[in-house]
Amino acid sequence: MSRPQPIPAAALPPRAFRGAVRIRFGDCDPAGIVFFPAFFAMANGIVEDWFTEDLGIDFHALHGTRRIGTGFVHAEADFFRPGLMGDRIALTPILTRIGGGSYALTVHIHRGEEELARLSLVTATTDLDARRAVPIPADLRAALVAYQERCAHG
Fold this sequence. Notes:
- This protein has three helices and six strands, in the order βααβββββα.
- The protein has helices at 37-55, 59-64, 138-152; strands at residues 19-22, 68-79, 88-98, 102-111, 114-127, 132-133.
- The chain starts with 18 loop residues before the first strand and ends with a helix.
- 24% of the residues are buried.
């Protein structure tokens, strides 16, 4: 298996959503380096922002009012460089697959042009009350497809 290589931020689709985050003291280990699970928490926060700010789907209403969950069912990461306390970073979600009841995305994490980490995530949509998988709601599917097309066509 060959190890993925970091890519510069400029190589990502120009119309992709980019969320800015500052690495905080609480995100780090005693050496001032991001404790690796903190990147997953940051990615989840960016996904919330992406839904509301870019996809036009109120993330909190989807979960709270509509009772549709979007939980990670698979997560993996490649780490290239350490993130340091005080760094300003950008997280960019790129859709890689839209299925019937799940979608996959890659979240690229950059400090300037330097890729620090790349998270591969699969998210399943669920009925939060019945605790079972459900198809991706039509409005969310349409927003995901539009985003994927916008990223693919510049």
